[in-house]
C-alpha cells in the first residue's frame, strides 16, 4: 500500500511536473504569439497607413465580379458606398463614363482569362480628375483566386503636364521643322559639328558650295567649305568657340563654284558640346568697302584741293577728317589733329587762333553750335565775321551716321568785291550824271536802259519819256526835229544795231539846229548792250580850225626856215672855200716863208674851216634828207665800221685816247646805204671822242646774229645828265659830254635819222661820271 502510495505520489509528481512544464511552454508560446500578433497588427496598421497615403490606390476584383474597393478609391471613381460589383462602375450619373466603364471591364476580364496586364486611363463623370488604372492577375497571397488586382493613380496633374508637354513638343517639332526648312532654304552655307568637330549636318547651300551630290556625301567624306582644314584652318575657329564657349567670327578666302570669294565664318558653340556654323559671302561687301575706301581717299584728295575748308566729325563728335585749307584757315597743327579732338576742343582752338567771331558768352555760343549735330532741318548756314575783316560762310550738314560735316568758305574777297561793286555802281551813277559827255545804254532789244542827265539836257527830254525805256527808233524820231538835218537821225538806230548785233564800234558827227556840233559813237559792251555817247565838240571844232590854220602857217614858216638854212649853208661854202684855199697857200709859202707861230695859226685856221665845213654838211643833211629814201644795197658792215674807225683814229690820237676796235666775224653784211651807214658810225665815234677827256678810252664793237647786226660805241667820259640824254637825239638841242649845252650838236640826230631810214634802232645809255653807251641795231633785211 505504501509502495503503491509512493508510486502514486511519484506519478502524480511527474504528471504535475509535466503539467507545469506544459503550462510554462504554453505561456511562452502564448506570449510569443501575442508579441507576433501585436507586431502583425502594427505592421498591418503601418501598411494600411502607407496604402492610405500612397499615390496609388489598390482594388481587387474577384472571379465572380465582386470588388474590394477602398473608400478613397471609391471617392476617386465617384462610386457610392454600396458599389460592390463591376456592374456598379457606371450608374447613371455616378461612377465612370459608360465607355470608360465598358473598356475597363473588358480589360479586367481579359486579365482574368489570359493573365494579360493592362493600363487604362479613365475619367469619372462630372469630375475633372483623370485616373490611370493598371491591372494584372492577383497574386495567390491576396486570397482571390482568378481575381485581378487594380492599381489606380490620380493622373490629373500628370495629364495636364502631359498635355502641356505634348503641345510644347508639337510646337517644338513645328519650330524645328520650320528651322530645318529655313536652314535648308538659306542661301548661305550652314553646318553642324559634333563635339569631336567632325561635320554632322550641312544644308543644301553648303552642298552646292562644295559641289557635292548630297549632304550625306559631304558628311561621310568630311568635305570642308574652306581650304586648309586642320590647324590654322576652319576647325581652329570651331575649336576656340567650343572651348571658350563664345561665338567666333573670322574671315577666310574660299573657292565657291570656281570663283574666289571672301567668306565671313561664324562658329557658335551649342549646349550639347557641338558647334554650329554658317558662312556669309562678303566678297561684294569687301569690294564695296574697298571701293568706298578708294572713293573716300579720292574724295579727301579732292577736298584737299578745294579752296574751302572742310571738317568732318563722327557720331562721337570727334574730328574724323579735315582738309588742308581748313588747317591753314584755322592754324591747326597736324600732330594736334591726329588725336581726333572733340568738336568743342576744335572750337576752343579756333578761338585761341582768333578765328572765331567775337561773342560775349562763349560757353553759350559753343552750346548752340553743339546743337548742329541734332539739327532737325539737316543743314545750318551762318556767316562769321572774324577779326581782321575776314568773312566766312559756314555750312553745317548733319550726316546719317550722327556725325557732322562743316564747310568753311572764305568769302572775304566776294564781300569786298560786292562792296566794291556797290561802290562802283554808285560811282558809275555819279560819274554818269557828272560827265561832260551824254551817255545812253541800249539793250540788245533796242530799248534805252540807262542814261545820264547830260543826255536828257541836250535833247530836252522829259524824265517820263526816258523812264518808259523807249526803243531806239522812237528815240531817233524824238531827236530828229532838233537836228540841222533831220534825216541824220536815222544814223542812230544803225549805229546801235551795229554795236549790239554786229559787235562793231561806229561813230559820226551831227549838227544841231541851234548850231552846236556833237560827235557820237555806239560802242559794244561785254554784256551784249550798246553804249551810245555824245560829246559836244562845238568848241573843239573852232579850236581845231584855229589849230589847222596855225599848223599851216607853221609848216610854211618851217619850209621858209629850211630853205633859209639850206641857202645859208650854200652861201657859207663859198667864203669857206676861199678861206681854206688862201690858208693852204699861206701854209705852202706862196706869200713867203712863215714863222713857226704863223704855221700854227694857219693850221688852226684850216682846222676851224674843216669843222665849220663838217657842220655845214650836217645841217644840209638834216634839211635835205628828211624823208629821203636811202639807196639800198649789199653792205659789208664790218668793212664799213673799220673805215669809219680809220677816219676817226687821228682825232682820237690827237686827244691821247685809247681807241679799241672789236669787229666780230658775225657782223657780216646788211642791206643798206654804205655811205650813210659809215656816217652813222663816224657820228657815234665823234660823239664818243668829243665827250672823253685825255687819257680816256673809246670802244667800237660790232657783232651780229642771223637776223640783225649790232654796232656798239662806248666811252668812259664824263657821261650825260638825265635831261641831256632825253634830248640827245633832238635837232639842234644836243648836250656835251660834260652835261653842258653845246652850241650845235647834230651828229646824234643825223645818226638816228639814218638808222631809222634803214629800219633799225638806236639807244643811248649814260649817267654822269659813268660814260656813255650807244647801241645801233640793224636788220639783215
Automatic annotation (TrEMBL):
Pfam families: HATPase_c (PF02518), HisKA (PF00512), PAS_7 (PF12860). InterPro entries: HATPase_C_sf (IPR036890), HATPase_dom (IPR003594), His_kinase_dom (IPR005467), HisK_dim/P_dom (IPR003661), HisK_dim/P_sf (IPR036097), PAS-like_dom_sf (IPR035965), Sensor_HK_Regulatory (IPR050736), Sig_transdc_His_kin-like_C (IPR004358). Its EC number is 2.7.13.3. Residues 567-781 form the Histidine kinase domain. One of its GO terms (molecular function) is phosphorelay sensor kinase activity. SMART domains: HATPase_c, HisKA. PROSITE patterns: HIS_KIN. It is an enzyme of class 2 (transferase). Keywords: Kinase, Membrane, Phosphoprotein, Transferase, Transmembrane, Transmembrane helix, Two-component regulatory system. It catalyses: ATP + protein L-histidine = ADP + protein N-phospho-L-histidine. The chain crosses the membrane at residues 6-28. Coiled coil: none annotated. This is histidine kinase. It comes from Sphingomonas aracearum.
Amino acid at each position: 500500500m505504501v509502495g503503491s502510495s509512493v508510486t502514486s505520489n511519484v506519478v502524480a509528481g511527474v504528471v504535475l511536473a509535466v503539467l507545469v512544464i506544459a503550462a510554462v511552454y504554453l505561456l511562452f508560446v502564448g506570449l510569443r504569439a501575442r508579441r507576433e500578433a501585436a507586431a502583425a497588427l502594427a505592421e498591418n496598421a503601418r501598411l494600411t497607413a502607407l496604402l492610405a497615403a500612397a499615390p496609388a490606390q489598390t482594388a481587387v476584383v474577384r472571379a465572380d465580379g465582386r470588388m474590394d474597393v477602398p473608400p478613397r478609391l471609391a471617392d476617386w471613381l465617384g462610386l457610392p458606398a454600396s458599389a460592390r460589383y463591376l456592374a456598379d462602375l457606371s450608374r447613371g450619373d455616378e461612377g465612370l463614363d459608360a465607355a470608360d466603364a465598358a473598356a475597363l471591364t473588358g480589360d479586367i476580364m481579359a486579365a482574368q482569362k489570359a493573365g494579360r496586364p493592362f493600363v487604362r486611363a479613365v475619367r469619372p463623370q462630372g469630375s475633372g480628375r483623370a485616373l490611370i488604372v493598371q491591372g494584372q492577375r492577383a497574386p495567390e497571397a491576396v486570397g482571390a483566386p482568378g481575381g485581378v488586382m487594380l492599381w489606380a493613380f490620380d493622373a490629373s496633374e500628370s495629364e495636364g503636364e502631359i498635355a502641356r508637354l505634348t503641345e510644347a513638343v508639337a510646337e517644338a517639332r513645328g519650330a524645328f521643322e520650320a528651322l530645318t526648312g529655313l536652314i535648308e532654304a538659306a542661301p548661305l552655307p550652314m553646318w553642324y559639328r559634333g563635339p569631336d568637330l567632325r561635320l554632322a549636318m550641312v544644308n543644301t547651300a553648303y552642298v552646292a558650295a562644295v559641289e557635292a551630290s548630297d549632304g550625306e556625301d559631304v558628311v561621310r567624306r568630311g568635305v570642308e567649305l574652306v581650304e586648309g582644314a586642320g590647324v590654322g584652318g576652319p576647325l581652329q575657329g570651331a575649336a576656340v568657340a567650343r572651348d571658350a564657349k563664345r561665338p567666333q567670327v573670322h574671315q577666310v578666302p574660299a573657292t565657291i563654284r570656281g570663283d574666289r570669294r571672301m567668306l565671313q565664318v561664324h562658329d557658335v558653340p551649342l549646349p550639347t558640346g557641338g558647334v554650329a556654323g554658317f558662312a556669309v559671302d562678303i566678297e561684294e561687301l569687301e569690294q564695296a568697302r574697298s571701293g568706298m575706301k578708294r572713293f573716300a581717299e579720292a574724295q579727301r584728295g579732292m577736298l584737299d584741293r578745294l579752296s574751302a575748308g572742310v571738317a568732318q566729325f563722327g557720331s562721337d563728335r570727334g574730328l574724323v577728317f579735315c582738309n588742308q585749307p581748313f588747317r591753314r584757315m584755322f592754324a591747326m597743327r597736324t600732330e594736334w589733329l591726329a588725336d581726333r579732338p572733340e568738336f568743342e576742343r576744335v572750337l576752343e582752338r579756333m578761338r585761341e587762333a582768333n578765328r572765331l567771331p567775337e561773342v560775349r558768352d562763349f560757353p553759350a555760343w559753343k552750346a548752340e553750335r553743339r546743337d548742329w549735330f541734332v539739327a532737325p532741318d539737316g543743314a545750318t548756314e551762318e556767316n562769321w565775321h572774324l577779326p581782321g575783316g575776314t568773312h566766312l560762310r559756314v555750312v553745317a550738314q548733319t550726316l546719317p551716321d550722327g556725325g557732322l560735316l562743316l564747310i568753311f568758305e572764305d568769302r572775304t574777297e566776294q564781300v569786298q568785291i560786292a562792296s566794291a561793286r556797290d561802290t562802283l555802281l554808285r560811282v558809275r551813277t555819279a560819274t554818269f550824271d557828272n560827265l561832260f559827255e551824254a551817255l545812253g545804254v541800249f539793250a540788245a532789244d533796242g530799248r534805252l536802259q540807262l542814261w545820264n542827265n547830260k543826255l536828257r539836257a541836250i535833247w530836252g527830254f522829259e524824265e517820263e519819256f526816258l523812264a518808259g525805256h523807249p526803243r531806239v527808233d522812237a528815240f531817233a524820231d524824238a531827236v530828229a526835229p532838233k537836228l540841222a538835218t533831220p534825216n541824220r537821225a536815222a544814223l542812230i538806230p544803225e549805229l546801235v544795231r551795229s554795236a549790239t548785233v554786229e559787235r562793231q564800234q561806229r561813230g559820226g558827227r551831227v549838227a544841231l539846229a541851234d548850231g552846236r556840233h556833237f560827235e557820237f559813237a555806239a560802242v559794244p559792251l561785254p554784256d551784249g548792250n550798246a553804249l551810245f555817247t555824245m560829246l559836244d565838240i562845238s568848241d573843239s571844232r573852232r579850236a581845231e580850225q584855229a589849230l589847222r590854220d596855225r599848223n599851216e602857217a607853221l609848216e610854211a614858216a618851217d619850209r621858209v626856215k629850211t630853205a633859209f638854212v639850206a641857202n645859208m649853208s650854200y652861201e657859207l661854202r663859198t667864203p669857206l672855200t676861199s678861206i681854206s684855199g688862201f690858208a693852204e697857200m699861206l701854209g705852202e709859202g706862196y706869200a713867203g716863208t712863215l714863222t713857226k707861230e704863223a704855221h700854227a695859226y694857219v693850221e688852226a685856221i684850216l682846222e676851224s674851216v674843216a669843222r665849220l665845213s663838217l657842220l655845214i654838211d650836217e645841217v644840209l643833211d638834216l634839211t635835205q634828207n628828211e624823208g629821203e629814201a636811202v639807196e639800198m644795197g649789199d653792205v659789208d658792215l664790218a668793212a664799213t665800221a673799220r673805215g669809219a674807225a680809220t677816219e676817226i683814229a687821228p682825232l682820237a690820237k690827237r686827244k691821247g685816247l685809247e681807241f679799241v676796235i672789236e669787229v666780230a666775224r658775225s657782223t657780216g653784211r646788211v642791206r643798206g646805204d654804205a655811205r650813210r651807214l659809215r656816217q652813222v658810225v663816224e657820228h657815234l665815234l665823234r660823239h664818243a671822242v668829243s665827250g672823253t677827256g685825255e687819257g680816256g678810252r673809246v670802244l667800237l664793237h660790232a657783232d651780229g646774229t642771223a637776223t640783225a647786226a649790232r654796232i656798239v660805241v662806248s666811252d668812259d667820259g664824263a657821261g650825260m645828265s638825265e635831261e641831256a640824254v632825253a634830248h640827245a637825239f633832238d635837232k639842234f638841242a644836243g648836250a656835251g659830254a660834260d652835261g653842258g649845252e653845246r652850241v650845235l650838236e647834230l651828229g646824234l640826230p643825223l645818226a638816228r635819222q639814218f638808222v631809222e631810214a634803214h629800219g633799225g634802232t638806236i639807244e643811248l645809255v649814260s649817267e654822269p661820271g659813268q660814260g656813255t653807251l650807244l647801241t645801233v641795231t640793224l636788220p639783215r633785211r
